[in-house]
């Protein structure tokens, strides 16, 4: 870290001395000299690396020890070069024995977009996009069916498009069952399925099988109770898949485009929503069985997903956690441009997860005194894989640790704020009930024996289709900005727009029904709301939640985050119809506008940037990407310090820059986080020139 004052230099020097002189005698208390409280109280905001504490002559020994331990001896020279690159990234091009091909790969490592990535990575991400399409299609296949299935399955108490009385509760329960099942059971299955069926791919495959069965079964139901059972089954598959798919994308993606690749989840959920609305329109005129075809239509992308999932490589990080380093390296070679990049990433992830294991409460077995004496060097003392003989934390221990460990508490806070904010913004009230929503906007009291027999009821379906199209198209701006400006930036820009457009749409319902401008005005503000949503709080929550947890707790942490999201969706699906009957659409949208204001405040103070845009310069120059493992240091900064930074630094800067238009104001506020570098570790060895 570029020291800003004498105190910071002294602190760095102290750590350097500790890392090189005391580590062999105090191995139980430190790993490579990393401060003991780095993930609890990272007050300096230092994004660190244990390799920076090694002297150049120690790097070779460490790399040799690493390849011998994990049976990678055939690649020893490659890993030695990778270790030297990681030790001093600024001098990577001067590492001895680098070939021209390796230099070219390193040079273009952080500048290549998705379509210039290896074919295997492209195929894997496209497969995960299909998984997202399945998710969105299932959400809206039932949306169009809501216009017709209540009457077909015996819910006869209808007022316009809405069931009333006891039938309204039956209608709500059937719609809510999928999301309650997904949140209460489905998402919690993801970690056991990963552990006991060996891998992310197996969990996605099993969830796709469940979804396929529910789609076919739902189309064949004869009573609302049978439809309810298939919706519960659908929720099991959706909940598990929603937890695993973004995590797999985050773990295989290169750091500099991780945000956009993980964001494909929401982009293609939006595309699936559009496909679902399109399918609703295509089959809407086939007669009384139209709703059955609408429910069954999601089987198409599910079959495609099942055909592709085992073409994809397993997550290298998952394989490393299971001790399969050789297989992890082979998969990384498939997913990266060149073996040197694969070796560099494998070695770096290993080092950071060793630090992570030490400081995040993962069960380890420390060496005895005799074992300590038998060691041949400080290096093996520092990096010995103490967890090799330890039992990994079980499911309940990991669940406890995401709340008990301070670093995880900050991560879960950020994830939950985003996930709950996505539900409380009002979007799913539109996605679940847009057909009846626009039906009510057009004619609040119209009755018809068979709604779909009246061609005028195609208008709600077309408007719903427009909602789906807007949701998909306006996700593309986020695709551009999510890695360049950051996740948090997108949220803070778009949430205020959502509050304004939600309020405007609610007030538009006060226009008299007889006024022909009523439906167009409501539709305009609804589309504007969707544009803001799709560019911000739509794609960000799942992207951020898949990143923020350490490897050992990533699946359980993501499960909890998805639980809060889908449980919120289930509660909305259950109570929105009842609440609408009491306060009307104007009151409902007004409440959502107020909740968006609350979400903005929570995001401002509690959500941290994971793209690296908030990290100052250093050894990595202009690189703004942060690896998954480096996020441990971001969330090591205490919550109070992060909140005070927003209040004392970011807020005054924003006032000067955006409101007062002060030309003397810098383009960015002072950074809270800073990169560590090998040169800072040696500041005590190099005299300063005055």
UniProtKB/TrEMBL annotation:
Q: What topology does the record note for this protein and the membrane?
A: Multi-pass membrane protein
State the residue spans of region: Disordered.
1-33
Main localization, broad class: membrane
The positions making up the signal sequence are none
Q: Does the keyword Cell wall biogenesis/degradation apply?
A: no
GO CC term, one of those recorded: membrane
* Biological processes per GO annotation: myo-inositol transport; polyol transmembrane transport
The UniProt transmembrane annotation reads: 202-224, 230-250, 262-283, 411-433, 462-482, 489-514, 520-544, 556-576, 582-607
Q: Where in the cell is it found?
A: Membrane
Question: Record's PANTHER family?
Answer: MAJOR FACILITATOR SUPERFAMILY (MFS) PROFILE DOMAIN-CONTAINING PROTEIN, PROTON MYO-INOSITOL COTRANSPORTER
What this protein is called in its record is Major facilitator superfamily (MFS) profile domain-containing protein
The organism named in the record is Friedmanniomyces endolithicus
